[in-house]
Amino acid sequence: AQSVSQHNHHVILSEAASLELGCNYSYGGTVNLFWYVQYPGQHLQLLLKYFSGDPLVKGIKGFEAEFIKSKFSFNLRKPSVQWSDTAEYFCAVNAGSGYSTLTFGKGTMLLVSP
Amino acid sequence: DGGITQSPKYLFRKEGQNVTLSCEQNLNHDAMYWYRQDPGQGLRLIYYSQIVNDFQKGDIAEGYSVSREKKESFPLTVTSAQKNPTAFYLCASSIRGGGHTGELFFGEGSRLTVL
């Protein structure tokens, strides 16, 4: 079974600061990787996903993530955060072959101060 | 507008009572899921259904039951056997059940409080 570890439970940044949220997964085979975001009072929505190909994937709102297979990592980055990026961020993984449900990390709450 | 509708948004229940949370989708998705979200715990899978009339237990199925009689609907019953039912419940769907590589689409959630 797969598992996901997110390193930081809470992150506080000032506007224009750079963001990197850590995500490591545990699974021996090929994987699909996702980042979801939950803005205050809104439903969870997909930020970006990796299935195969270029390990650097770009998502909505200027976010990107890099899949590093040797490190079992899929860290989320943004060069310059905005107040509107305040939200909870979840990393998720499922097996890349066969049927597999998504396993989520515990989430990272990001607070961006104006 | 296509999407997932969960109801009720807020629900209060007395200990010992069963309660059913509704989840309806009009996305024509085959697969549906129920997750539970607790602070600091992330999302944990309760039950999922890849196709009508079939469902499987997730990681924390004890004290819960589901049915999938229609493609559009996947209600979750929180029974009195669930020891810690106060939580935020999220319903989701995906296009396919088997060989799942697609994203999940989520409803807005139902917050259950047991008094």
Overview in brief:
Chain A has 114 residues and is mainly beta.
Task: Please describe what this structure looks like.
The complex is a heterodimer of chains A (114) and B (115). With 114 residues, chain A is mainly beta. Chain A has strands spanning 3-6, 10-14, 19-21, 23-26, 31-38, 45-50, 56-58, 64-68, 73-78, 87-95, 103-104, 108-113. Chain A is globular, with a radius of gyration of 14 Å. Chain B is mainly beta and 115 residues long. Helices cover 0% and strands 50% of the residues of chain B. Chain B has strands at 4-7, 10-13, 19-25, 31-38, 42-51, 54-57, 64-66, 76-78, 87-94, 105-106, 110-114. In chain B, a hairpin with a 3-residue loop joins strand 4 and strand 5 (42-51). Chain B is globular. The relative contact order of chain B is 0.33. The chains are: A mainly beta (114), B mainly beta (115). Chains A and B meet through strand 5, strand 6 and strand 11 of A and strand 5 of B.
Any key phrases for this structure?
heterodimer; A: 114 residues; mainly beta; four-stranded antiparallel beta sheet; 0% helix; globular; B: 115 residues; seven-stranded mixed beta sheet
Which secondary structure elements does this structure contain, and how are they paired or packed?
The complex is a heterodimer of chains A (114) and B (115).
Chain A: E1 3-6, E2 10-14, E3 19-21, E4 23-26, E5 31-38, E6 45-50, E7 56-58, E8 64-68, E9 73-78, E10 87-95, E11 103-104, E12 108-113
Parallel strand pairs in A: 2-12
Antiparallel strand pairs in A: 1-4, 3-9, 5-6, 5-10, 7-8, 8-9, 10-11, 10-12
Chain B: E1 4-7, E2 10-13, E3 19-25, E4 31-38, E5 42-51, E6 54-57, E7 64-66, E8 76-78, E9 87-94, E10 105-106, E11 110-114
